[in-house]
Amino acid sequence: MLTLTDNARSAVEDLATQAGLPDTGGLRIAESTERAGSLELALVAAPTPGDDVVTAGRATVYVAPETTDALADQQLDAEGTDAGAGFRLAPQE
């Protein structure tokens, strides 16, 4: 299952707080509807039925069912950029 680094956990917590999301809110990862083979990240108020739920601290990440297998051995990381948080995936260590 997807895991989060401490940086990703902190970034997701900060983004959810800044967006005023409810306790059920978090970051959702799904296949892009516009670009095949790409992923979309979105802040959502609640999961979509069937989403896998990954929690770390107060951070919640929802993984769409069609991306679960592709992300099973991945780790979500984040780093600060001038535009905000930048996320990337890497194999789990």
What does this structure look like?
- The longest helix is centred in the N-terminal third of the chain and has 13 residues, at 6-18.
- The strands form two sheets. The chain has a four-stranded mixed sheet. A three-stranded mixed sheet has the order 1-6-7.
- The protein is an alpha/beta fold.
- The mean pLDDT is 92.
- The chain has two helices and seven strands; from the N terminus they run E-H-E-E-E-E-H-E-E.
Layout of secondary structure:
Blueprint: E1 3-4, H1 6-18, E2 26-31, E3 39-44, E4 52-56, E5 59-63, H2 68-71, E6 74-81, E7 84-91
Parallel strand pairs: 1-6, 2-5
Antiparallel strand pairs: 2-3, 4-5, 6-7
Q: Strand order of the main beta sheet, please?
A: 3-2-5-4
Structural class given helices, strands, pairing?
A: alpha/beta
Query: The CATH topology, please?
Result: Hypothetical Protein Aq_1857, Chain: A
Q: What Rg do the Cα atoms give?
A: 12 Å
Helix content: 10-25%
CATH homologous superfamily (4th level) name = HesB-like domain
Task: Characterize the main sheet.
Answer: 4 strands, mixed
Second CATH tier, the architecture: Sandwich
The N- to C-terminal Cα distance equals 13 Å
Tally of individual helices: 2
Beta content: 35-45%
Low-confidence parts lasting 5 or more residues at pLDDT below 50?
none
Mean pLDDT: 92
